[in-house]
Amino acid sequence: MQEEAHPPVPQSETEGETGRRGGRRSRSRTPVGYQVCERITEFLIYGSIVAGPWLYGATEPWAVWILNGAGYLIGGLLAAKRIIRVRTDYVPPRWESGGDQADTFLAQWKGPHWLTFTMALLTVLIVAFTFVSGVNARATFNVDEQRFDYHNYISWLPHSYDKAHTLFLAWSYVALAFYFWGLRDWLLGKTMRERHPRSGEPGEEENTNEMETPGLPGRLRQLLWVISINGAVLAVEAILQRMDGTNKLLWTRESYWGDSESMFGPYSYRGNAADLFNLIWPVTLGLWWNQRQKRRGTAGRVGGSPHTLLIPCSMLIAAAPIISTSRGGALIAVAGMGVCLATMLLSQRRSTWLSRTGIILMFAAMAGLGGYLGWDKLVPRLKDIKMDNWSGRTEIYHNSEQMAQDFPLYGSGPGSFAAIYQLYRNDPNEVWQAYLHDDWLETRVTFGQFGFTIVVLMMGLVLARWFISGGIAVSWHFVSVLWVAVSSCLIHAKFDFPLQVYSVLQLFLTLCCILFCVSRRAWTISP
User: What's the whole-number mean pLDDT along residues 482-502?
Assistant: First the structure.
């Protein structure tokens, strides 16, 4: 009986690639253990992003520890993947493979690796700073008795006036650091279809800088879909909850304020909800725009353009900050719409007037939906901005400036603002604030100039990353909407406290991680 012929198996799938790593031949067949780690990491990333807002915004310790647990697991899986790579000489195909598979140390550092090293160093510094502040605490604040229990400490090292809260934040920052680097490692990996694309297969175009609109890799595209769909469901729930008039979060438990107007969706404070939606809708819009540009010119078929679902999703999510009646959230949402509209019209300057008109009408529908459902209640609050001094924040800012002067170098300790603010009130009858309503100033107060500088340097690396070659090549149209999302949160952080809420901070770091993975063009090693 004649033996059935089989097509030859590519050498890269069996014997490994010809390149060497550390003087040894590197294998390219993915180890089973590595595949398992990748799958579990993907599940944990999606689960964290989806669960965060639904756990009442992750504003309570039990919810924070659930997400922290996911972060620790992601970090453990990242370590396991690193061990597998070393023990098996496996070099995973990545979007920055030009640098990863370089033969010499000098060749690697001509690429984006110095950025990665710098960001990793700053991550270790900020986590270590928080831990040292907690361990070397000046005092522990006793909430029940409202007094400080003082400890011996080393004055020239970072220290805190609220040991318990600082250590709680330190463990949370460890989990978020693991999440950030685990997400980055996963995003830069290529899927099986991207490693071996079939010619003519839609959506599998090579990601190169010669293309006018580079296609998004599969993992990044799936992540953005998860964020977008979850955001749309959250927006629907929040809008229905507001229309119902209930004062219970998710119709299950009372909000912190017990007021239906102050809360929105699963958040007791409408400003935090507005911040979350302002992070999501530009991403949803950018995903739709990228998929639309890639589909242009291809043969249409029924069910072949699922990205059109992103249009109503982006409209609902963008309208949510206005409907929430958060003054800052609504103003930033409208400003963001203007920037995104200008960006899209600029990219379509050579298109037909019909195409440009359609884009304008889409943005008009976004603003119109928000105005129709939330304008009546938002207008009186906008008129009262000067009358109520931004809800008494002028007084908070004045007191906090004195706090920043008293703790100039290392601050009062991460998370210690609520404990020490009482000492700076001019009148005992003043409200004892738990948050400063200015994350920039609160970072200066609690982290000091030393910690504040580290945070600013990290943000600078994230925002500048696209201009340096290497990583996932994306167009300026796509990265601009990510900048809008991140910038909206940073601007609102000047007047509120979005980055003090775990779920908002985690989503913010997710977008920062995406920005730290993308570039204007891929990097290759010169022969």
Answer: 94
